[in-house]
Design goal:
single chain; alpha+beta; seven-stranded antiparallel sheet; globular
């Protein structure tokens, strides 16, 4: 999305709310947000408001830049980059409009330009990345203003951005839960290793393959590779048949509406249900059945662009989980990013 000479990446909508300052950054359009959770689980309507993974991008010759933002309801962090180079991290306090005073990196001018161009992004691109929140609710960020003190500002050009774009749908794991900062999340690390950009549509605790979400994703466009991490949020809430029906609709739609594009179907990552003391418990059985249904979808569709990825080949170390035994730690996200990038690289080659 381009607005006022700025690129809002992974942003579907900028929302102005009466009585609140700034423009809220939304990864999903309002019609979809309001249409989630029509059954017993209403969590999607809440989590779909999270701004984590949204970015504000621009290019300017200004030596000094002031970016004014706010956190709508909960504290959270934003991370600033010049291209792929980390610049700084800033904590936004809920309800407080804050100005980030940013200096153009002084040492960039002292080194050979080709040395700086080894990342995915041109180092001239300022990237203001919405990172994660601190409990209890989803981190919602609002944009107010960018001041360049008389210098021109523009959105990045195509050649200043990664040539390839990765679309990711999944649970809180895909959205980055367990990682201390957003760039540590496995899908971000995967993209970095592939030289790709990320459109992160993870939705923690509410990755339910709802028809409205499926329709949105299959018609979204603008991506080259898609990863679908499915099943973990639906265990115990849906039967195996219901899960298969929803997942099949999503997967089939992604393939039909995006011909020639690889779709990576990822099974449930290792978690406590794999190693319960009672292997016949409902939790363990659901875990196994849902994985089997994903394998069935892959085999029955038999599509050359659909690639099945066993989650256990991505998170290969059980101790890489956090103590909740479901979300990866920073180490786990790093391991997953490395392994998933390799799996995707084989498909691309």
């Amino acid at each position: 999305m381009i607005w006022n000479e700025l690129e809002f990446h992974n942003v579907a909508e900028l929302e102005e709310i009466r009585g609140l300052p700034g423009l809220k950054l939304h990864r999903f359009p309002k019609e979809l947000r309001d249409g989630l959770g029509k059954g017993a689980n209403q969590r999607g309507r809440l989590i779909s408001h999270a701004s984590t993974g949204c970015e504000i991008r621009f290019v300017t010759e200004a030596e000094f830049v002031r970016v004014t933002l706010s956190a709508v309801a909960e504290d959270g962090d934003v991370i600033v980059y010049n291209g792929d180079y980390f610049h700084s991290m800033h904590r936004l306090k809920a309800g407080v409009i804050q100005a980030l005073h940013l200096d153009k990196p002084a040492r960039f001018a002292d080194v050979q330009p080709e040395a700086l161009r080894q990342g995915r992004f041109s180092p001239a691109v300022w990237r203001i990345v919405v990172s994660r929140n601190y409990y209890p609710g989803p981190f919602q960020a609002a944009f107010h203003h960018v001041e360049t003190f008389g210098h021109e500002i523009r959105p990045p050009r195509q050649e200043e951005l990664p040539a390839r774009r990765l679309l990711a749908y999944g649970s809180s794991i895909t959205h980055g839960s367990g990682a201390t900062v957003q760039h540590q999340a496995y899908i971000q690390q995967t993209a970095r290793r592939l030289g790709a950009d990320v459109m992160n549509k993870g939705i923690g605790g509410a990755c339910l393959c709802e028809p409205a979400m499926a329709d949105y994703l299959m018609h979204l466009g603008g991506w080259d590779i898609a990863t679908l991490e499915l099943g973990v949020n639906m265990r115990g809430m849906f039967t195996a048949d219901e899960f298969e029906e929803r997942a099949r609709y999503l997967v089939q739609g992604m393939l039909e509406h995006n011909p020639g594009k690889p779709v990576m179907l990822i099974s449930i990552y290792p978690n406590s249900a794999d190693v319960l003391k009672n292997p016949d418990s409902p939790g363990a059985e659901n875990n196994r059945m849902f994985v089997e249904r994903l394998q069935k979808i892959h085999q029955s569709l038999n599509h050359p662009c659909l690639h099945y990825v066993d989650g256990h080949t991505i998170l290969t170390d059980f101790s890489a989980l956090a103590v909740d035994l479901i979300h990866p730690s920073d180490y786990g996200h790093t391991l997953m990013g490395q392994n998933l990038a390799e799996a995707i690289r084989k498909v691309l080659e």
